[in-house]
Amino acid sequence: MKRRQLPGMNREVSELCFGMGGFGTTTRGEATDRLVATYLEAGGDFFDTAHCYLFWEENGEGASERELGACLRRLGVRDSVVVASKGGHPDGGESYRRPDDYLSPRTLTSDIDESLERLGDAHIDLYYLHRDDPRMSVEEIIDFLNGEIARGRIGALGASNWSVQRIAQANAYAARKGLHGFVASSVMCSLADPDWKMTPEPTMRYVTTDEESWHTVTQLPLVAYSATGTGYFARTPDTTQLSTNPANEARRERARSLGTELGCTPTQIALAWLLHQPYPILPLFCTTKPAHLAEILGAADIPLTPEQVHWLRHG
Question: Which of 109, 120, 231, 259 lies deepest, with the highest CB count within 10 Å?
Fold first, then answer.
């Protein structure tokens, strides 16, 4: 598996990031260990979780972080991997009540406290803000996060569901002050565009054409969630709520056609397309199924020509 350098981090990470959002309730213990061991054997070392994960399941809040921390201890590999987690999520309803000031120092301090306790760790390698809050200045946010870096509780900084304009403002301030800025952005990105009218969470973001241009110029890495279009390339039409539209159906047919030619699946083609963009994309995947994990890992070895990359998207 190829590796990517996140600016400001002292080590590279694997270009496929294992999202642990489905672990800790129905999938845990030996089942988790087998999947993580397979990923590690393939060269993977980049894990993603969040303070809020699995709050939507019964007794699920915090389960993902607990299971990831426990798994890494069981396998004895914590020192050789990179753990990313997220805090600063807005209110999620009855199952995940949050204060209105979800990016305030008070709330983020509590989020980091709880994430470290759940992970059973003293340090989070990459810490994302799960959402933005335009009511707060980037100066206040960056100053607080750098204080947490100085305390040794977090390492590099990431922005999840932030606009590139706010990331640029934050990083410009950090550069002027000699502080740490954001080293990665995490938004929805796939060969299949989301049907935004159907998206259940209005604060989620996907990469636009203008933002793609910004990433190409800056080369700031993008950690792409929903990288397979929430399973769109493995399904038949109108069975997904985020991606079904004529343009995406045509892209899926082209992925099927090229997959047949290259001897791989449409999902693998969609992931390979992300890996061949003119700026660094690290697809974030989440699966609890061994066969699906093997399929995803296989995408890392698929070569695409520039002409194929363009054709998959535009025809």
Answer: 259
